[in-house]
Structures are given as C-alpha cells and as structure tokens.
Design brief:
Shape: globular
Largest sheet: 8 strands, parallel, barrel
Structural class: alpha/beta
Number of strands: 34
Helix content: 10-25%
Distance between the termini: 40 Å
C-alpha cells in the first residue's frame, strides 16, 4: 500500500483508483488489545477475508488531563495503523470526539465539564485542541498519501443524541482543514429520527444494524440514497453485570453477512475482535426506552461474541464468516486451527493483606476538607475510589435512616470503623443508624464504576453527587481522600494492618513459560486485579463474567506479582485460581 490511492464515493458506487471496491471491514480497537498482540490479531482478520480494519479513537485515553497528551502503549494509534498496513489491511478511523463503544463516558474525558456535543464554544475549544493533536497523525496515513486510511468518521451515531447540524459541519470542516482528504462519513441507526438528526447532505451516510439487512437498507434509503454500507453490523453484543452472557448463532449471522455482501454493499463487522476493558475503562448504559433509566454497568470482557475471541482465538463464527467472505474476495491462507497453549490450571494462596484505610497516606492524592461531600470531578479525579469521613452527633437512640443521595456508584459504609452496609446506585442507598452520646464516625468508601456512554445522561459525575442525611438533617463537615488507583506501586506491604472494610491481597504467580491465562476469584465479592502493576479490570460475583483475561505480554518467567483489591469481603483463606480457558458466564442468544 505504499503508492498513493484514491477512494471515491458517489451516489452510485464506491471506487478505489476508478475500480469498484467493496469494503470488507472488521472492528478492532487498538486500546482493548496489548500492542504486542496487534500483529497476531490483525493477521487473523486478514486471513478471515477482510481487507480493512476499523477503530475508534478514545479521547479520554489520549488526553487524561487537560493538555497532557499521550500516544504510547495502548494509546499508540499510529503504531496500530502501521501494524494494520503491514498485515495488508486498509483502515477506517472514527475519531469522535464521542465514540460510545461501551467505553467509559463514551471516550469523553471526565475533566471535560461541557459534554454537550453541540456548537457551544466551551465544548468546541477543547475538541479543537484535541483534534489539533490527533488529526494530523491520521492525515499522514491516508491512502492519498501512500498510507492505509480509507475513510474518517464525523462524530459517532450523532442522531441517537442530537440534531445540531452546525456542530456536525464544524467538525467536518475541521477535519478537512487539518488535512483529511479521504471520504468523510457518518453512521447512524436506520430509524428516521436518527438519520435526520445525525447526517448531512454533503457527507456520505452509513447505517448500523444487526438483523434484517434488506429492511434496514430500505428504511435508510427513504431518506438517503448513498451506496449501501453497514458501518456497524452487530454480529454479537456486550454484557452488563447481572445479566446473562450474550451470544449469537454463527450460522444465523453468517447468513445475514451473506445477504449484505450479495447486495454489493460494504460492511464493517462490529466487532471482529473485541478485546478487554482494562482498568477502569468499561462504560455503562442507562436502561429504558429512551436510555435514561436504571444504571447498567458493562463487564470487563469485551469479547462481544466476535469472530476472534477476547484472547484472539478463531471461533466457529470466524470460520463461518471466512466461508461467506470467500464468495466475494480471494482468501489468504487460513490460520492454524490448533488452540494456543495457555497457562496450566492451578491455585495460588494470598500471602499478605493490607487494609485500604490503613494505607491512605500512600494512596490518597491529599486529604480535602469540605462542608459537603465533593464529587470525583470536583476533587480532580477521574476513576477509582474516594473515602469520605464525617460525624453524626448523638445521642440519637432511635434508628433513623442514614441516606446517601446521588450515590455514583457504590459505597462500603463503616460506622466507627466497623463495616455496616454496602449501598448501591439504583438499589439500597440508606441504612438505619442510632448514635450514642458521643456520636459516631461515618466512613464511606465510594467506588466509581463506568460512566454512562450512550444516551441523554452522558456526562454524569461520580462519587457522592447529592449529600448525606440522617433522616432529614444534612450531615456537614467532611474529610475526603481521593484514591485514583492509577498506580499501586506505593502500597506499604508489611505494615501492620487491622482496619476493616476494603483490603488489598497479594499473591505470587510463578510462570515457567509465558502464555495467556485466565484468573478466577471464587468466593470473593467485588474488586480489581493487578498483574505486575497492570490493572486487568473489575471482577464481581454478580456475574456473568467469571474469569479475567491475563494476556501473555504482562507476564515474565518466574515470579509475577498479583494484587487484588476486594471491596466487599474476602474469603477467610483468600486464594486465586488460574484457569486454562475463559468463563464468561451463562449464555443467552
């Protein structure tokens, strides 16, 4: 792909250098797979019969603090595009600034106060600053300059959110001004509400759906007459905590793919390889018909029931798709059908414990004193935990409700240092409390789970967003320790520890040969796992996900440091399991 090429989209066709071109694409997000694994995954996507890979670009990963940009490690989008080119794949880039993607806050940084996705200057200024950094890097890799980037998206599924065409045109013109000369496009559901809100007459429009290709293309065509392109063919789905694991029958979705391709339409499989929501980056949804209801956090795995599994193995869906794609393109040699060896199964005992409350001096970014509880954003914190300490006076012999209003998202409540309850957003948010004459100390260890990534409630705050009341009386006077957990290197292992509540546990994983593995925590409640300082993500006994993926690049021969932060109650004899295969929970179609 070294020579300059020209992709053209007219009302009648998509052509590449003047010849008809059917885009056979699959979504793979570079930020959900470790860079050392990109070549393997991309080569397998090419072997499936795809000619293109599609990726979002998450703003919050690249600009974690205002003006502090990173393009290294999981954020190395340029390295990913190079790896895709080396694998023989073109690329479609979707830079947002909003991406959805079941990703924390839809990719919008937590520090961005004005999350309105409109032409308000207070939103456009930071977006412009971000695009000044990002877009020239994408422009340099366009097919028109000898690279592999075929197309660039304007915003993302905007018709599911708003109708500000001034904003969409501002973004489109900004992309062109910063060097994009390959075709721009939008992608939306086929419903007229979404098409009329999210598209522009002068920008190529594509459709998103997971079933009935003929029906969705026909509905889309009532408003748009662009060449048919399903930019998100939902061939699987994601999971929320407390639900079943979603799967789709391989033969069913292969048949649908065949229907799309037989029409001459282009397609992008969402997802072709899902990967993992490492660390704190799994997003959430709000339920209900208008996506403004009950909070629904997304699990750590983003396997998505994709053709390539979370750990990169071709599935039955992969082979079914390869057969269908082979009817429309020349197939490369097929990859090996032999499963890759994984770590041997075994148990590991935890050898050390450290109470979270006994090591705040090592974890907190600095105690804040405030009349009222402050949100994470007011504390200058994006993710992790915050510890709130206040007092309720006494004597109050009657057990009155202690209520946390606007809890986002979960809290361990300790009274005079003794764990008393777990409160949860959209669940129980109060406990009965009587106080002696001296009063009591109330400690709330509040966990932020993923910010909602889709719909009208995007841009929510985390922490205690309302206040704390004893019956009707507000509780004032708080000490707050922000605990972002962006690093656990400073944990004071060996310190005497006795406090109750959330606690860290440490184990050594001995590895003779570096391979992928899977970590299970039977008997544990809810928390996070780190391997050699890298946050693998959340676990929760609520399921459906049982194991966390342990990628081989994070391991080394010999001893590896496993750390668990248990937010509820650890087993009396805390042990971890290494399993040879994943367990993503009970499935439903």
């Amino acid at each position: 792909m070294a020579k300059s090429r020209h992709l053209k989209i007219t009302r009648k066709a998509i052509t590449l250098d003047g010849e008809p071109f059917q885009v056979l694409s699959g979504a793979m997000h570079y930020f959900r797979t470790l860079p050392q694994q990109w070549p393997d995954r991309l080569a397998k996507l090419r072997a499936m019969g795809l000619n293109t890979v599609e990726t979002y670009v998450p703003w919050n990963l690249h600009e974690p603090r205002p003006g502090a940009f990173t393009f290294a490690g999981l954020a190395d989008v340029e390295g990913f595009l190079t790896a895709a080119e080396e694998a023989g794949l073109y690329a479609i880039v979707r830079p947002g600034p909003y991406i959805c993607a079941e990703w924390e806050n839809g990719g919008i940084p937590a520090w961005q106060e004005f999350r309105r996705r409109c032409h308000d200057p207070r939103w456009l200024e930071p977006v412009g600053r971000w695009f000044d950094e990002l877009i020239p890097r994408i422009a340099a890799r366009q097919v028109s300059r000898g690279g592999n980037v075929l197309m660039v998206q304007v915003e993302n599924e905007y018709g599911s959110y708003g109708d500000d065409h001034v904003y969409l045109r501002h973004l489109a013109r900004g992309l062109v001004r910063r060097g994009i000369d390959v075709p721009l496009f939008t992608s939306d559901g086929s419903w007229s509400l979404m098409v009329t809100g999210g598209t522009l007459p002068e920008i190529y429009a594509t459709a998103n759906f997971g079933s009935d290709p003929a029906g969705h293309f026909a509905e889309f065509a009532r408003i748009r007459d662009d060449p048919e392109f399903c930019m998100e063919f939902w061939n699987g789905w994601f999971d929320h905590w407390g639900e079943d694991h979603h799967v789709r029958d391989p033969d069913e979705v292969a048949k649908l793919l065949g229907e799309i391709l037989a029409r001459g339409a282009s397609v992008n499989l969402y997802m072709a390889h899902g990967g993992t929501n490492f660390g704190f980056m799994a997003g959430a949804n709000a339920g209900g018909e208008q996506a403004d209801g009950r909070y629904e956090p997304t699990v750590t795995s983003y396997d998505y029931d994709a053709p390539l599994s979370e750990h990169g193995e071709p599935t039955a869906k992969f082979w079914a798709y390869r057969e269908v794609l082979g009817r429309h393109t020349e197939l490369p040699p097929e990859p090996s059908r032999e499963p890759v060896a994984t770590l041997p199964a075994g148990e590991i005992a935890c050898t050390a414990r450290l109470s979270l409350l006994d090591c705040l001096d090592a974890l907190s970014t600095g105690t804040v004193r405030s009349a009222v509880p402050r949100t994470f954003e007011e504390l200058g914190q994006a993710y992790g935990l915050a510890v709130y300490r206040g007092r309720v006076p006494g004597p109050r012999p009657e057990a009155l409700p202690l209520t946390v209003t606007g809890l986002h998202d979960r809290a361990c409540v300790l009274i005079d240092g003794v764990p008393r309850a777990t409160l949860e957003r959209d669940g129980v948010t109060s406990l009965p409390l009587a106080t002696p004459e001296r009063g009591v100390e109330v400690t709330l260890v509040v966990e932020a789970m993923g910010r909602v990534n889709y719909g009208p409630v995007q841009g929510e705050s985390k922490g205690v967003t309302g206040g704390v009341r004893h019956e009707r009386q507000s509780v004032f006077g708080w000490e707050i320790d922000p605990v972002p957990l962006d690093s656990i290197e400073g944990l004071p292992w060996g310190r005497e520890t006795s406090a109750g509540g959330p606690s860290f546990h440490r184990a050594a994983l001995h590895v003779e040969e570096v391979r992928d593995g899977f970590v299970a925590l039977p008997g544990w409640g809810k928390g996070y796992v780190w391997i050699n300082g890298f946050n693998l993500g959340r676990y929760w006994s609520r399921g459906p996900q049982v194991t966390l993926y342990l990628p081989w690049p994070l391991l080394r021969r010999g001893a590896n440091d496993l750390v668990v932060l248990e937010l509820d109650t650890a087993p009396a004899q805390p042990r971890l399991e290494i399993r040879a295969a994943p367990d993503l929970g009970e499935s439903r179609s």
